[in-house]
Amino acid sequence: MPFTPNRDFKRAPRLFARAQGLYYYDPAGRAIIDGVSGLFATAAGHGREEIAQAVHDQLRELDFTPNFLRSHPLAFEATRRLAALLPQGLDRLFLVNSGSEAVDTAIKIALAWHRARGDGRRSLLVSRERAYHGVNIGGTALGGILNNRKAFADVLPAVAHLRHTWRAESVFSRGQPETGGEELAHDLQRIVELRGAENIAAVFVEPIAGSTGVLVPPRGYLENLRAICDRHGLLLVFDEVICGFGRTGKAFAAQSFGVRPDIITVAKAITNGTIPMGAVAVDRRIHDDILAAAPEDGIEFFHGYTWGGNPAACAASIAALDIFERERLFERGEALAPRFAERLHALADLPAVADIRSYGLLGAVELKPEGQPGRRGYEVQKTLFDAGLHLKSTGDALILAPALVAETAHLDEIFSILRRVLATLR
Ligand code: PMP
């Protein structure tokens, strides 16, 4: 099992057998409330009948076609629907099957674009400490987590890492920290000066570093990265695999923070978590330049996956986007966010809590480490499961990302379990 201490799991397996709404059920029928939308995926809650029906109907109509040389109408409909939610002009899409594939595809698009413009020396990538961009080779190189990188260090493409954006002075801040944005973004300027803009292709950031602990960028940070990229001809890529689809209050974090990247990667909630799917959205000019540079009648971009844009995933995505729209889910999530933040930050009085961070419906409670760093987070996450709450731990941080359809009563339940368990810790 991935990212799992397998020996420990075999001793005490924790299984889900069923899910509906905000709840998972174990094989014995015990309800476990879902505090993290599975894994940042089920924005509209579990067991959505409309999606199941759409996938069922699609499999009976057209079960499979690759998207090479031929395609199918739903692939175009899905991309049109997605483009309508994205920042204006990011309307050329490449469909893949996961967040990791989206990231590695985005790397290749960025490199292909510079080469198409005769700027082929630009191959260095920039990302951040504590970044997570999936586990394919490109994303592993971008990532800023030692354990994920160390066995592969000598085969990873070249990446320069900015500092992560957590600062001790911003502890317990709600939303964006007020200070440090400009200074932290200046790391990019320093890398440009050290390595030369002419060697750098693109800067990858999660608008909010999600799976490593909800590190919300200070005010001005993303704006300054954008300005430095513009000044030096670097592409700015937002990895919105977690932040996308209403998690931050708007459809995408690019809109919440008012910063327009050149490329956005998405996955997870794109099908409400049901069928594997991801997408890379690129600015139209990137698409046009790559096409213009290719020989007449030749393949423009040598890349693709057998299941990218498969009919079942496209049907699931369109059905999910229908639900998001019909139920005005992004607005609903935005309206729920202050209540979520209030309950989350109320945990600050507990002695074991070292920091709390939040933005939109994304939050983290950082525990004071006990013994080896990460040990306590892992143990508490298991205790919470046994107490009836599913969430994600990363190091000693507990991460919450409830579904956008959560009701106040769900938040009450999530936070009462959390308080009860955390109150036993010192
Ligand atoms: N990018 C980000 C920001 C992610 O959070 C994740 C997954 N948590 C990925 C990429 C990788 O996605 P996947 O697991 O679907 O490959």
From TrEMBL:
Residue ranges spanning the membrane: these are: none
Asked if the Swiss-Prot or TrEMBL record annotates the protein with the keyword Transferase, the reply is yes
**Swiss-Prot/TrEMBL cofactor(s):** pyridoxal 5'-phosphate
- The keyword ATP-binding is annotated on this UniProt entry: no
> Coiled-coil segments, which residues?
none
Gene Ontology molecular functions: pyridoxal phosphate binding; transaminase activity
Cite the InterPro entries for this sequence. Aminotrans_3, Aminotrans_3_PPA_site, PyrdxlP-dep_Trfase, PyrdxlP-dep_Trfase_major, PyrdxlP-dep_Trfase_small
The alphabetical list of record keywords is: Aminotransferase, Pyridoxal phosphate, Transferase
The family annotation for this protein states: Belongs to the class-III pyridoxal-phosphate-dependent aminotransferase family.
Its name, as the record gives it, is: Aminotransferase class III-fold pyridoxal phosphate-dependent enzyme
